Amino acid sequence: MSKALIVYGTRYGATASTSEDIAETLSKEGLDVKVVNLKKDKVKDINEYELVIVGSGIQIHKWTKEPEKFLKKFQKELAKQKVALFVCCGSTEPLDDKTDKAKSIKNARTKYLEEKAAKYNLQPVALGLFGGVYNFNNVPWLFGKFMQSIKPQLEAAGVPQTEPGLYDTRDLNAIRNWAKEVAQTVQS
Ligand SMILES: Cc1cc2nc3c(=O)[nH]c(=O)nc-3n(C[C@H](O)[C@H](O)[C@H](O)COP(=O)(O)O)c2cc1C
């Protein structure tokens, strides 16, 4: 059985549950999957994995630091392995009327994924740009004003609350289809 590793960093939980969803699909496709939250656990060696998926949430245009450190640490190994990158972010669903959605998606793909792959000399088998969550139950004081300012926009855009205070812009089918395609790159 081919082994796959998913590592991620999250601030508000979207990348954690997205990682679990990806893992479920990979398992269904016959892969032996390990998921690691890099904020909690470390990875010492990646040689046993045929596929490595690295995911991050985005805040003020930045990845979380742990998966970025992971890319740096394992840059040489990853260059020889099958690797996929994904991010959970707000750019897939711009909340103001002025931002062009297609442009926002294109810019996010370039900035958060393609530039990251290039920075670490990676040639990923796939790049996943997914939506994110706005979690009003876990707001750092620094971002309180920003979060209050976007609440009416989330409501107006019809973003569903998957639990009280948690607005989720992710498309789970798109995530599962992406994971299926990634799994197939290992089997082929
Ligand atoms: C304070 C704050 C800043 C954010 N900045 C950005 C950003 O610059 N670009 C973007 O696409 N999404 C941005 N987002 C949306 C997040 O990417 C989204 O909440 C995502 O779920 C974060 O991933 P995580 O839940 O795994 O932490 C921001 C969200 C918050 C709360």
Radius of gyration, rounded?
A: 16 Å
Largest sheet: 5 strands, parallel
Uncertain spans, ≥5 residues at pLDDT below 50? none
Query: Outline, from the CA principal axes?
Result: globular
**Order of H and E elements:** EHEEHHEHEEHEEH
Let me know the average pLDDT. Answer: 95
Number of strands: 8
Helix content: 40-55%
Report how far apart the termini are: 13 Å
Number of domain modules: 2
Kindly name the structural category.
alpha/beta
Q: CATH top level of the largest domain?
A: Alpha Beta
Number of helices: 6
Explained architecture:
The chain folds into two domains: 3-132 and 169-187, Rossmann fold; 134-168, no CATH class. The chain has six helices and eight strands, in the order E-H-E-E-H-H-E-H-E-E-H-E-E-H. The chain has helices at residues 14-28, 65-73, 75-78, 101-119, 144-157, 172-187, and strands spanning 3-9, 32-37, 51-57, 82-88, 126-130, 133-135, 161-163, 166-168. The strands form two sheets. Strands 2-1-3-4-5 form a five-stranded parallel β-sheet, with helices on both faces. It is globular, with a radius of gyration of 16 Å. The mean pLDDT is 95. Flavin mononucleotide (FMN) is lined by residues 10-15, 57-61, 88-91, 108, 132-134, 143, 146.
Quick description:
By secondary structure, the protein is an alpha/beta fold. The protein has two domains: 3-132 and 169-187, 3-Layer(aba) Sandwich (Rossmann fold); 134-168, no CATH class. 41% of the residues lie in helices and 22% in strands.
